Structure formats: structure tokens, C-alpha cells
């Protein structure tokens, strides 16, 4: 199968100018071109209702798909809210919106209902867009399209360079987007992120169609657009980095108390929890079970920069955990829904382990054949579930029903069913 990057040679978007040309392009061997300025310059940041209304009218009157992106302040602020929203549509140009000044963008979302939204790594931005009233009914995910097409690198910069022949400046991806006013270089970077997104979408659609994968991509995009908001994670404190070191229930209780105390403080101060207290410090305190503030202050993460009042609040959390009854202590592990970890299969059920091994080998071979990551062909969790509790009869109809029950899309069911039928039948024989 031809490498997806071969499309760069055919792309009419590769040029020596600053914007995509209207006619034929040049050779893919030419050096990529730095994209330094948006076509119409940096648009003014929309920060009032009057400007927002004008922008919504312009985008509603535009044509074709709309490019959408959002910038968060991960690592700086509490939560994952959007601090800048960028859009671009033919006939309307580009727009930058301040969702702090304009926190309700539901009117914009309604104006773009039915329009295809083009996002890169859609599942990262959709939660924060949903919070401000922007929910797509149709979308095209350029990162996912790149994965399905077999691109080895699917970051936006790599995709724009490999497919369109332009280099995006990515120096501001991890800045504090809650900063006000936003510096001009950051705004330029943000506007450029949507500058070529629709062009990239068009090129990727052609490549997916050439590979016979366009319908597969459409099913994936529809699944993302129709997915309900994710359920809040149960016991999020269990995701504290370094938790594998904590084994005793009393120590787990300390992690929980410190994590919850930190979360309340971070939310109140609107800062990233890691800026309040690091995960390593939480684990250190849980392992040590300090008896008092002086013992706590001697631990890593609670050094001389930690004030007396802060030390007292952390020690109070430790003391609360130490005072819990046995019945109030958390259990060592979360209840696991579904099969056990694969490493335990050989001991628990050797036949199931053999099924899983055969299924993994078959899925791996098929993924290589169609030039796609295994996890995009079918999720590893789905394969594990079918192999742990296989249908009573390992025929195509039963396996198809099992896969569909676990959320596999029709294209995945069609491709993977023969592989799993073979794996399950071979291990039953």
C-alpha cells in the first residue's frame, strides 16, 4: 500500500507563497515553507456581545466546513476550561473569541449546527467547547484521519508539513492561555492553528478515499459527535502519580485526604492542583504517616517554602486519615469491570490466555496489512472482553453481535470478525 505521505506530491496546496494556490502545486521534495502570518492578519479578539453577534452572523453566512480550535491553560489553572476559541470559515475569515469575556457561545453553536466542524484531536477540545455551549452535530477530526490513513506522525504541525508543505510555529502550545491581555505572538500562533485546517481536511479526505477508508472515517467521526459527555471519573484520587508504591489501606486513606484537600484549595484559588501540592509529596506523606507538622516538614515536597499554615492543613488531612475506622478505609484496588489484567490470564484461565494471544496476533497482522494503528482498528479492551467471555458459539454472527455490543463501529465489526472467529475457533478445537 502506498504511504499516505505520497499525497504531498499530488497536493495542490503546496506552494512557494504564503497561502494555498488556486492551481497546480510543486514537487513534494521542495523545502517546507514557514507559515508566518494569517492570510488576513491577526483578527481582533472578540470580547463583547456586539462583536460576537457580528461574528456569528458572518460565520452563519459563510460556506463550507468551519475550522475550530480551543486553547486551555493546563498546568496553570484548575480544570480544562477554554481561554481562547479560534474559528475559520470560507467567506467569514478567521475569528478569535475570548470565552472569559463571552462565556456563553451557545448562539454560535446553534448558528453552526449542521455545519461540519473540523478539529484536530477533537476529543481533547470538545469537553471545554461543550462547557461554553458549542457542540457539533457533524465533525471531521484531522488527527484521527491521519491515524486511519497510516501517518506515522499525526500532530497538527507534522500533518500540515507532511501534507500541505507548510511549517507551523508551535512555540506557544504550552503557555498560560488565561493570561490577559494575550500577547500578539500568542494570538498569531492561535490564528495560524486554524489557518489551514480546512485545507488539511480536504487533502486527508482525498487520501482516505484513495485508500478506501473514507466511510470508515465517517463512522468514526459520527461516533465522536454523537457520544454523550463522559461520566465523572470515580475515585479520581487513585490516579495520583506514584500510587503503585502505596499498598496499605491507611496509607491509601492519606492519599485520598491529601488529594481531596488539595483539590478544594486548587478549585478555590483557580490554579492547577500540581501548583498547590505535588503528587510526589502526597505519596511521600502517605508512606511516612508523619506524626506531626515537624515530621511532615522533613519530607520531600514539604520543605522550607511551605508556610506553617499550609503545613498545618496538610497535617490535618493526614490526621483525619489516621483517625478513620477500619471500615472507613478505602479498599486497595478499584472494582474492575470486565476482564482481569492480561498478565493474570495465564494463571486464571490458560485457555482464555491462548485465545487472547491468537486474537492479538491476528489483529496486529490485519492492522499492518491496512496500514493503521491496532488501537484504531479495534480497541484492545474490546478484544480482551470478547476473548475473556467469548460467545457460546464462535460463529460470525455471534462475534459480530459481541463486537457491536462493546461499541465497535460497523466497519470495525466487518474487518475484525473473521480474525476473532478464527482465533476463538482455533483455541476451542
UniProtKB/TrEMBL annotation:
Report the InterPro entries cross-referenced here.
3'-5'_exonuclease_dom, Exo_C, HRDC-like_sf, HRDC_dom, HRDC_dom_sf, RNase_D-like, RNaseH-like_sf, RNaseH_sf
The HRDC domain, residue ranges: 248-328
Region Disordered, residue ranges? 1-40
Which PROSITE patterns does the record match to this protein? HRDC
Matching entries from Pfam families are given as: DNA_pol_A_exo1 (PF01612), DNA_pol_A_exoN (PF18305), HRDC (PF00570)
Protein name, UniProt field = Ribonuclease D
Q: Tell me what organism the protein belongs to.
A: Streptomyces violaceus
Q: What is the lineage of its organism?
A: Bacteria, Bacillati, Actinomycetota, Actinomycetes, Kitasatosporales
Amino acid at each position: 500500500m502506498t504511504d499516505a505521505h505520497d499525497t504531498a506530491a499530488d497536493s495542490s496546496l503546496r506552494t512557494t507563497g504564503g497561502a494555498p494556490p488556486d492551481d497546480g502545486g510543486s514537487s513534494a521534495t521542495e523545502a517546507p515553507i514557514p507559515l508566518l502570518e494569517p492570510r488576513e492578519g491577526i483578527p481582533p479578539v472578540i470580547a463583547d456581545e456586539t462583536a460576537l453577534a457580528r461574528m456569528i452572523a458572518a460565520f452563519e453566512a459563510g460556506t463550507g466546513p468551519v475550522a475550530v480550535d480551543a486553547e486551555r491553560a493546563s498546568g496553570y489553572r484548575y480544570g480544562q476550561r477554554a481561554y481562547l476559541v479560534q474559528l475559520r470559515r470560507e467567506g467569514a475569515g478567521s475569528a478569535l473569541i475570548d470565552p472569559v469575556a463571552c462565556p456563553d457561545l451557545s448562539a454560535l453553536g446553534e448558528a453552526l449546527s449542521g455545519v461540519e466542524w473540523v478539529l484536530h484531536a477533537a476529543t481533547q477540545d470538545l469537553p471545554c467547547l461543550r462547557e461554553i455551549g458549542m457542540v457539533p452535530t457533524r465533525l471531521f477530526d484531522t488527527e484521527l484521519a491521519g491515524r486511519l490513513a497510516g501517518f506515522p506522525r499525526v500532530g497538527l504541525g507534522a500533518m500540515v508539513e507532511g501534507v500541505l508543505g507548510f511549517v507551523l510555529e508551535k512555540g506557544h502550545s504550552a503557555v498560560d492561555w488565561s493570561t490577559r491581555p494575550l500577547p500578539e505572538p500568542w494570538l498569531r500562533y492561535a490564528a495560524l492553528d486554524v489557518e489551514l485546517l480546512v485545507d488539511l481536511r480536504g487533502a486527508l479526505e482525498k487520501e482516505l478515499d484513495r485508500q478506501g477508508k473514507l466511510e470508515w472515517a465517517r463512522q468514526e467521526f459520527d461516533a465522536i459527535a454523537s457520544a454523550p459527555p463522559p461520566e465523572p471519573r470515580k475515585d479520581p484520587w487513585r490516579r495520583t502519580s506514584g500510587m503503585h508504591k502505596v499498598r496499605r489501606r491507611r496509607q491509601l486513606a492519606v492519599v485520598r485526604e491529601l488529594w481531596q484537600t488539595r483539590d478544594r484549595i486548587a478549585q478555590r484559588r483557580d490554579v492547577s492542583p500540581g501548583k498547590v501540592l505535588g503528587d510526589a509529596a502526597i505519596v511521600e506523606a502517605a508512606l511516612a504517616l508523619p506524626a506531626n507538622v515537624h515530621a511532615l516538614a522533613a519530607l520531600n515536597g514539604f520543605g522550607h517554602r511551605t508556610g506553617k499554615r499550609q503545613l498545618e492543613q496538610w497535617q490535618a488531612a493526614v490526621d483525619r486519615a489516621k483517625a478513620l475506622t477500619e471500615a472507613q478505609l478505602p479498599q486497595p484496588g478499584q472494582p474492575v469491570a470486565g476482564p482481569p489484567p492480561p498478565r493474570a490470564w495465564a494463571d486464571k484461565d490458560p485457555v482464555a490466555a491462548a485465545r487472547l494471544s491468537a486474537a492479538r496476533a491476528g489483529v496486529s497482522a490485519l492492522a499492518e496489512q491496512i496500514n493503521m494503528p491496532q488501537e484504531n482498528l479495534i480497541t484492545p479492551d474490546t478484544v480482551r472482553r470478547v476473548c475473556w467471555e467469548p460467545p457460546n458459539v464462535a460463529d460470525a454472527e455471534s462475534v459480530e453481535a459481541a463486537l457491536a455490543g462493546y461499541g465497535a463501529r460497523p466497519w470495525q465489526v466487518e474487518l475484525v470478525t473473521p480474525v476473532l472467529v478464527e482465533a476463538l475457533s482455533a483455541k476451542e478445537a
